[in-house]
């Protein structure tokens, strides 16, 4: 188990990419691998009136855009022995990737081996924790077995929802 913070990306291909420095530094140093350019990255920093490389609002925007494009951003917190996994939505594909990540983390990623009890806090872009499971639980398919909470609504509410969806669909075809 590492004694210092470690970062990882899971690429849209499903590959696990260990981060040697910070997530943003990895993006800034390798823009082509993240389907962007230095010029685009500089523009984002300029729009926020921040120095290039600062860990501020521009950084947040760049990393959020990557997560929206299908990247998963992971950070290990050794003090509390858990990962945060920032995702856009918990799709079947993301569940598969977290399953694979959990298995690899317990075997060891580039020499860093984590215990089965190490947790992953799955969070959205706003930083809200959606769920929290151990590597062992994730490697045993808990993400597929764990039912998400469904809303219980009255039929009268459903009619309002349906009419909003139909109105939105109608407006987008005009």
Give the tags:
alpha+beta; globular; 174 residues
Describe the structure.
- The structure is a single chain.
- By secondary structure, the chain is an alpha+beta fold.
- It has one domain (6-145).
- It is 41% helix and 18% strand.
- The chain has seven helices and six strands.
- It has a six-stranded mixed β-sheet, with helices on both faces.
- Strand 4 (82-86), helix 4 and strand 5 form a beta-alpha-beta unit.
- Helix 2 (38-47) packs across helix 3.
- The longest helix is centred in the C-terminal third of the chain and has 18 residues, at 155-172.
- The chain is globular and about 45 Å long.
- The N and C termini lie far apart (56 Å).
- 22% of the residues are buried.
- The model is unreliable at 148-154 (pLDDT under 50).
Helix content: 40-55%
| Element-level helix/strand string | EEHHHEEHEEHHH
Q: In angstroms, what is the radius of gyration? A: 19 Å
Strand content: 15-25%
Number of extended strands:
6
Strand line-up of the largest beta sheet? 2-1-3-4-5-6
Query: Please, how many helices?
Result: 7
Number of domains: 1
Structural class, please?
alpha+beta
Please identify the oligomeric state: single chain
Give a brief outline of the structure.
This protein is an alpha+beta fold. 41% of the residues lie in helices and 18% in strands. A 6-stranded mixed beta sheet has the order 2-1-3-4-5-6, with helices on both faces.
Task: Please render the helix and strand layout as text.
Elements: E1 6-10, E2 16-19, H1 23-29, H2 38-47, H3 57-68, E3 72-77, E4 82-86, H4 92-107, E5 119-123, E6 129-134, H5 135-139, H6 142-145, H7 155-172
